[in-house]
């Protein structure tokens, strides 16, 4: 079946919905989602969304920009970061007018709280910058945007799993996507003038992760399949406070409200690693500090976790501002956070890298920043790059709505002038070939075996700390696993709700992302942000103030380091907190 729309958005999280909402002002927009829309992973975002409103103390976008540049370990592009931080106050007011139920101060203004790495006066002290809806901020924004999109007559195709991007390298343009309808097993071709990829990250490649089961890198993988580049995949953020041992996120908001990290001695150890802002240091620094404490033998009861202590906080804070995360501790571990400390350890959380774009959300195809007609990306699937080597908490939700809106506005300007490129004669063949191979494989192994081995080698060898030896081992393991993957046979031969088939296809994307991440990380011989190497412990601005572009080259990965980091206001300095 062929569907025709002006714009097709792949992904129904906050970035996809904000792009769809903006484009729908003058264009015919369809949104494809592999899930029921309110189940999109944006709904799991807890702590808040950053903007220098100054509702509680003096603040301004310049300070926010500085914090984001410094937090990125100076790998973020400063022109894009300036856009992000200066658009932020307007974006928050817009979301408020849309109906997002932000927490309020007694004077009626939007409440704000501190978050890791956010400071006033260029690093002087922590600042209250995160706007929030209790600890369910993503849920509140996602539902509000969904309702607005419905009111604007955006067409939703739910449980349509996009698996192939239609890209014409001769025209340097996209003309649509091909999707698999889960309820019927049918192929659907979406013929369009513009495509927005907003499918999130690929954290399910690691064994301990805060990411939803659906976070399997499909959109990023579709772009990679077409020979187009992915940027800075070596920078995967490990959030310091995943609920041990399952990895579910305990929001940074808990530390923003006064929670304290403690080792086996009950010591507030972050005073040693970040004496100025302690537990509210950036996430990469806190994750490494936790791992160093564990490696030094100060893990709780000799185990691989530490404690997050909330017991000293007013119980009303836990009930009113942190109800979800305290509920997680009770439901999954039987712990009462008002009395007992919460066991936490780093968990794979956020991909700083992704599909390279410019500040309008337009996808670029090379180190020379040449754009692709009609092709956009936003949110975690994209790399603008505003997060560089390390994302500050609350900047992810900001990224989704700032660059989702910018992509929508750019499409409104250019799409009316674009012609819909003709569909290729083989549209959908790439997807059908993958399905046929999975259905006809010899069945020598299972999805579960390959997936668990992949996740384990990535956690052990491409985790918080890395070495050449470990990453080389990961690549050896991944080569073996990719060979095993080709023997996995789909057990379900039906068409209706064939989740077995989708498990196989998702695993293929994850294996590609894992390999490209490990190759990119092995090549970067320095430590920067979320990429920490024991064998190269220092940052190397002389050689590595560049972005990594990774291209699929058959079964291998080709790298390009010609894309320079954009510096405007702030020269790189030692990162001290």
Task: Please describe what this structure looks like.
The structure is a single chain. The mean pLDDT is 96. This protein has 16 helices and 22 strands. The protein is globular. It is of the alpha/beta class and 577 residues long. The strands form 6 sheets. Strands 1, 2, 6, 7, 8, 9, 16 and 17 form an 8-stranded mixed beta sheet that branches. The protein has a 4-stranded antiparallel beta sheet with strand order 11-14-13-12, with helices on one face. The chain has a 3-stranded antiparallel beta sheet with strand order 3-5-4. The termini are far apart.
Q: Total helix count?
A: 16
Tell me roughly what share of residues is in helical segments.
Answer: 25-40%
Question: Mean pLDDT score, rounded?
Answer: 96
Report, as a whole number of angstroms, the end-to-end distance. 56 Å
Number of DSSP E strands: 22
Radius of gyration: 22 Å
Largest sheet: 8 strands, mixed
- Structural class by secondary-structure content: alpha/beta
Beta-strand residue fraction: 15-25%
Task: Give the assembly state of these chains.
Answer: single chain
Helices, strands, pairings?
Layout lengths: L1 E9 L3 H10 L5 E5 L15 E2 L10 H11 L6 H21 L13 E9 L4 E7 L5 H15 L3 E4 L1 E9 L4 E9 L5 E11 L20 H8 L4 E2 L4 E8 L9 H4 L3 E3 L7 H4 L9 H16 L7 E4 L5 H7 L1 H11 L8 E10 L3 E2 L5 E3 L6 E7 L4 E2 L11 H20 L14 H12 L6 H15 L3 E2 L1 H18 L13 H25 L8 E2 L7 H4 L1 E8 L2 E9 L13
Helix pairs in contact: 1-4, 1-11, 2-3, 3-11, 5-15, 13-14, 13-15, 14-15
